[in-house]
Amino acid sequence: MSVIVADGLTHRFGSEVALEGLDLVLDSGEHMAVLGENGAGKTTLLRVLATALRPTAGRLRIAGLDAFQERRRLRHYLGYVAHAPGLYPALSAAENLEFFCDLQGVSRSRAADVLETVGLKAVAHRRADQLSRGTQQRLAIGRAILHEPRLLILDEPDASLGAGAFDLLSGVMHGTTVVLATHDQALANRLCPRTIVLRHGRSLGTATHLRVVQ
Amino acid sequence: MNQLRVALAVARKDLRSEWRTRELVPALAQFIILALLIGNFGFQIDSRNASTIAPGILWLALVFAGLVAFGRTFAAEREQASLEAMLMTPASPVAIFAGKALAAAALLVVCEMVLLPALSLFFGMPLSGDVVAAVLLATVGMAALGCLFAAVVARVRARELLLPLLTLPLWIPFIIAGGLAVQSAMGLPGSYQQAIGLLIDFDILFVVLTSLAARFVLDE
Amino acid sequence: MNRFERAAAVAVLLMLLAAGAIFVYAPTDALQGPVQRIFYLHVSSAIAAYGCFAVVLVGGIIYLRNDSAVADRFARAGALVGVVFTTVTLVMGMLWAKPIWNTFWTWDARLTSTLVLWIVYAGYLLVRRMAEPGRQAARLAAVVGIFGFIDVPVVHFSVTWWRTQHPGPIIVNDALPVQMLGTFLFTLACTLVLAGVMIAIRYRIETLIDEKQSIAEPVPVAAGHRAEAGPEAVP
Q: What's the total number of domains in chain B?
């Protein structure tokens, strides 16, 4: 079954085109990497796919539902790690996750499990603003998987993760459908069988196990 | 109820953050004391005219402290990019909004706990249960409206400029009714009962309206 | 001349006729003297302003319900024209008040609520200027427009209850001479035509602005022309 069916996604900020006529089909369980330079439209595409941004034109269906008419019903289905971690600096790692357990409507005990999954058990009671950028990123990833989403949208989650990125991400991505934006082509190839390259908001094409794009 | 649980979780999160950082309340308290200082030199207050001028200073200080408090609650979420994370969850935007408003109102009540005794200390304003009740009732509606418009301007440039412009006209009914309630509680002519009744009516009206509007402001 | 220019010419002509009626046809008020002639345009532009803000309210509600770009443009046009008419109302009212009340301003219910009206919709226009144009600005402004409209009767009520000295509506009073009533109704009709023409022209301008910024109207989300997208285009 197709998890994502996008048809002619276009987004403009004023007169600036961030995304133009993008078509995309992603099947259940597929992992797809989105590559491209800064400003190529990666973040815009991911925000649209996460239903955080309504495109100025185009259609998007996720899990068979219209992504913008039925956004509320897709909340349970979707997990999104945005570019900024979006944590509460004065709350501890565990408190950040427990708060989002309340919002997701899942048991707070889930926070401890997820801290374990993303390898943050040792710093669970440290305040978020005292954590390193990479640790904050892990916490943000943890927050996105609290409700065990079936579709994960990850916007450069590896940017500050360092050496542990592959292990963490491959663990988190296992068994779900994933769209992952990254600059790291080697990592993209290891994690995602499929790749799409963006330039100026357009797709330069997709490939399976893309090796080198110059 | 699930909505209530979300609202309380959001309010608890905000209050806990404020308790840990202790940024907003001390700043607001300082601000209030400064407002009283300015009021004193601006009006040449003495024991004879204090009771007519003190209520005016009370509302001025409260209104501007409120603008700062409500502006801050959503601006902080924007800066941290955490508002979007909250809205990506299945939790209802109205419940999230209610939680934010609740926490902001609680912070404003803490400020009032500084403001009212200070007014009575510096200007000899009598501190009665009637005055406290009027101020608290006005806080409810002002918090609902203030948070709604703080959420509106949080995604706009020049939000510091726009928040007072949009919020103050909508607070006027509360200031009229609240002002009269405080004046009559201090012995000036006017019906206290009627003013309090009006405040309650306005509270109900604007709390209902803001919760209806919150969905459109916070969604997306 | 295109049809907007023709409409504008007609509106200006009507306003000149109204001026003629006000200064020539209508009799001089026995008590207030010539100053009373301000009343005709003052009340007419107040009613026109309320009409414009009703357009903002209805446009905002329709926009929130179904994202209609047309409704939003009407709201924007209504707000701008409404602020213009509110300004006229306030200025003429103050000119009238100076000789009659011996002060330009008093904190009476009608004056206070009209001032609040002006502030709210001036704020509306500022939100439109400062927010990034598009769906978000439109939604935020719609909320501002709706709350502003609700706030006016509330402010009015609370000040009335507090104190008021503005003359009550005497239009319905049959003591009003028929020439005065006729002049008032004619001026009102002309002013409403003027407001309508201004909104229509402003609507056209807003449409052109939208087209220039190429903010496409939301594509219908019902089943589209291409049912299921095929494989992505490979260059």
A: 1
